[in-house]
Amino acid sequence: MAVETGAQKRRMQAQLHVHEHQAAYRRALMLSLPFAAALVALAAWANTRTVTTGTIVLFDPAHLAFWLVGIALAVLAAAITGRLALRARPDEAGLAPRRTAPTLPTTGLLPVVTVFGAVLLISIYHNALLILIAPLLFGPLLGAVLIARYHLEDESGQARRLAGTAHVLLTHGVAFLVLATIYINKVRSLLSATTVAVIVCLLLVQIADGERFPAERRLIYGLVGGMILGEITWALNYWPLTGWTGGAILLIAFYLIAGLILAQVRAGLRRRDILEYGIIAAVAFAIVALSLL
Q1: φ/ψ (deg, to 5) at 12
Q2: How many CB atoms within 10 Å of residue 157?
Q3: pTM for the full predicted model
């Protein structure tokens, strides 16, 4: 009798988990589609605006409304995903859903950087093609970000590991997009380096989601990493690089810092980790440098 009761309870838990996953996927779809549509509208609006030669859209008062709407959209993405993307997990005893949240409100950090990167991309390539690219690129990207973040708290170790890998890869992809689009604008270092520092800090604070990582260490590592990338941006502004090449160099630095942070969080930083990430970063930098020649 006890065996049957235990088996029945496990079946109920499995069914509850399936329904929970389906609800989470629907929630990710419901959250990503409106933002994809909003980016289409933003791209269509940008396509109607005239930018004369030599104009920096970022500083042109005529385009202030575009930036206000774009930044508001990014902040809204953080607020909504941080509020609604929290998962409902079953209570161990009563099988009733219960909501969980991380010690730091990190759920909305990757979505806000993703949408901000989309706004930057639209501001640079404001053409009719981007009206089509925006939903095809950023809709699935935002949905994947939310689903990966959801599974970081999965009871299944395999699902959690896969979600962790996807989360790290998505973070690096978003980092490349944002860092490159910031560097492409070639604005003064006080603005570009500061923006890079803030963006990198946000990404590093959330990159170890799903790991046992004290909040104060998250903030310290994020601030230090952001300052390092900001200083690198300052130096890169004196180099005659194209925007995407500069973004690739910043991504290599981000990869090195993020990799060392994750290694420290998971098992403690070892000499092998330093060599592994250092060698890969050095080889990637050499490839980028040789491509310039």
Answers
A1: -65, -40
A2: 8
A3: 0.85
